[in-house]
Structure formats: C-alpha cells, structure tokens
C-alpha cells in the first residue's frame, strides 16, 4: 500500500497536500534545483511550517518516490501476478503498472527521474531494480514454458516492455488524456500480440 499520512498540523496543508505540491515542484525544477525556500514560496507558507511535517527536502523526496514504488510493488502481489501462466502474469503486471503510472503520474515521474545523487535516490533505484528483476524473471519463465516467441531475447523484452510503459510520463496529460484502462489496453495489445508465441494461443 502506498505510504500516506493524513496527520494535520498547521492550517493550510496536511502532509499529503504538501507532498503533492513538493513533487510537482521537483518535477518542474529538478530535485537538486529545488530549495526549501522555493517550496515555501510555492506553498505560500513559511519554511518552519514545512518542517512541522517533515525533517527536510530529502524526506519529501523519500515519501514521493516510495508512494510510486509501493504502488508498483503492490501490483506484483496481486492474484493476477502470482497465479496462472507466466505470460498472463506478465501481462497483468504490465497492464496494472500502466494504470499505476497514469493514476500516480507525478510520483512515478519523480521516481523515473532520480539519478542516484543522494542516499534516498540510491535506495529508490535499488527498489526499482528489485521490481525490474521480478519482471525479468516473469519474461524468462514465459520463454521457458513456450508462451513467448523464442526469437526475442528475454532481457531485451523486459527493457522494451517497460521502456514503452515508462515513456507514458513524457506525453500523458490527465486533463485531456484517455482513461488509465484505455492506455493499459493499448499497451498490452501492442506488446502482447507481438510477444505471444503460437503455442500460447
């Protein structure tokens, strides 16, 4: 489950509201290019009001990337990702990952832009690699059982699948974009119609 808190402190913002604005600013200016003063100005509150909720900018980053990561890891624990044929489990993970990306767009965007310059970023990248390994293992299992065409390298398949998923952050705009289910339908149709071997039909 995504990391959230509704602790309410000083008037104007609870932690979730503060986090929403902080993540937006991080995405616009970059984490390194955002100061606590910048955040305070955007929020219209004092820096001390921000410190009431969090210890500093790094905690806001940690909360932001963990919200995305927790949502993605919840996907691989769903029944559709844990039972059935590997190709079907893989399709479930890809489909639900698209939905998570669309529904948590600012947070996933922040996650995909971290570069490992801080301890929090390195921890996030480590968790991302764990998720990537889960996907790669599903691809390999699907190839072994004959569900995925054998002429495509499993490691390349995994990278291409999530390259397509992750590219959504560059063009999707919630106000005028299709619903998450429509985006997920399109991605899985394009990807899995090409991936499935004749034996998987």
Automatic annotation (TrEMBL):
InterPro entries: Homeodomain-like_sf, HTH-type_TetR-like_transc_reg, HTH_TetR, KstR2_TetR_C, Tet_transcr_reg_TetR-rel_C_sf. Residues 35-54 bind DNA. It comes from the Bacteria. Residues 12-72 form the HTH tetR-type domain. It holds the Pfam family TetR_C_24. Gene3D superfamilies: Homeodomain-like, Tetracycline Repressor, domain 2. Keywords: DNA-binding, Transcription, Transcription regulation. This is TetR/AcrR family transcriptional regulator. It comes from Saccharopolyspora halophila. The lineage of its organism: Bacteria, Bacillati, Actinomycetota, Actinomycetes, Pseudonocardiales.
